[in-house]
Please model this.
Amino acid sequence: MTVWRLEWLRLIRTRRWMVLAGPFVFFGLAGPISIHYLPQLLASEFGDGAIKLPKQVPAQGLAEYSAQISGLGLIIVVAVAAGALCIDATPTLATFYRTRVKSIRTLMVPRYTVIAAAAVASFMIGTLAAWYETTVLLGPVPFSKVATATAFGSLYLAFAVAVVALASSLVRSTLATVGISLSLLFLLPLIGIYRPLGRVLPSALAGAFGSVVLGEGPGTFIRPALLTLALIPLLLLFTISRYSRREV
Amino acid sequence: MIVSTNALTKQYGDRTALDHVDLEVPERCVYGLVGPNGAGKTTLLSILGGLRQPTSGTVNLKVSRQRWAMCPDAPTFEPWLTPPELLDLSGRLAGHPPSSDEVHTLLDEAGLADSVKRRVGGFSRGMTQRLAVAATIVARPEVVILDEPCSALDPAGRVEVLDLVRRAGESSTVIFSSHVLADVQRVCDTVGVLADGRLIHQGPLEGLLARFARPVWTVEVRRSAESVAAAFTALQWVTESVATGPTTLRIEATSAGAAERGLAGALHAARARVVSIMPESPDLESVFLAMTAAPPPSERDVPDVPARSRG
Model:
């Protein structure tokens, strides 16, 4: 039983994978359907021709998935990640792990990697579902756009999980970790209102998926992506350092 | 000494949990740490285990911290693991992956052989505690720290865990805290007594028991213990003589030697028909109560009665 297998079992046996993947798949299927049937829905509510919609483009199906999942999906990822990353939430369990490993890194790296990978995989599965449904109902969307958009979205989720790891080193309880993580993640876009910062902060990646599939070039998101890539290991290093100094 | 501390002090705000503790744990001993609630046992063990930092003082370890394993007083594990998975994980984390045979032997010794397929989340507290001791030992550490390992166990479970502790003591140094002094007396060869954060005594258990032993005999006679007890009160070497039942009396002497010389003659003079004479063996509980209630007797008061051997 390696630490990696332990984390895999944590994901499978606690049904965390279902909690993660379920909403992504649901919204992946529901997003394009709601766009496809939007004219009929409006007509049945307000009458034919009462509301005129602009001509639909296929990418709107994927953009709708992104809009629906960006808030709820992030909250679910944060909550599930906190459950796995709060090593000291139960002191007696922390004693078991901490008195056996050389460094807290032995525990933190697999926990972060597995939960981040699961979040990214869930997002990708949801995206595949949304892409399939969009293609069937609304029309094709180029693979390159979907792949680029998915890469940015995945990077943001990996960053969100790193923020959860950091929060778990600041407080002990899972609930407090969720609260701090969401505060930090929702605070970043507010800082991003100041445009020079907003263009480079990781929060710029939160809306990258919708923007890219709707036609915005990936160049806009290169700088925040590079900063995010640099920040993730830094956050993890800081987290490990905080855990190493913390008493149980 | 495999582990020693020097003036180890731990403060939580204004409260002093440990006050200049100089612990000395000999290699390959089973060290029993006893003390009342709040004496600082868990704090001391947590500092030794590297889970907490002392406010001042030092901890000197002869072996790397990686060769230590600690079992807390109310252990918890991932509820979705099975006992063999947990033991395998424990060993691997510590760098000693156990074989399947080792895992199953340990589970058998812990009385969990019938529960290998169950998940540990469904275990009773006693089962979890036995599993925790097994998960500590499986890592083959050089120093094992067990904080109240018998606190939630029924008599049968206690015997199993004490056997595990005793076996661990054959290959490792064990530091073991317990409220149940009979357990400490049963498995430990060295004891430390903590009270109010201070280490008021440490040393071999035999020496401690001998130091606090009182020269007391229980005598059983065929009849009329009261009249025999009355005859003893007149003797100079007797400090107390009480009939504890119709046929039993308790005699406390000024010294073991005086009693050994005079007891048989005094019984003969009292025309007592003697059934049995038993020296009263000191136990850790009475010693502990005596130590925490009053200062220990000075060396000149040390009686020459032998300490009871441990069972």
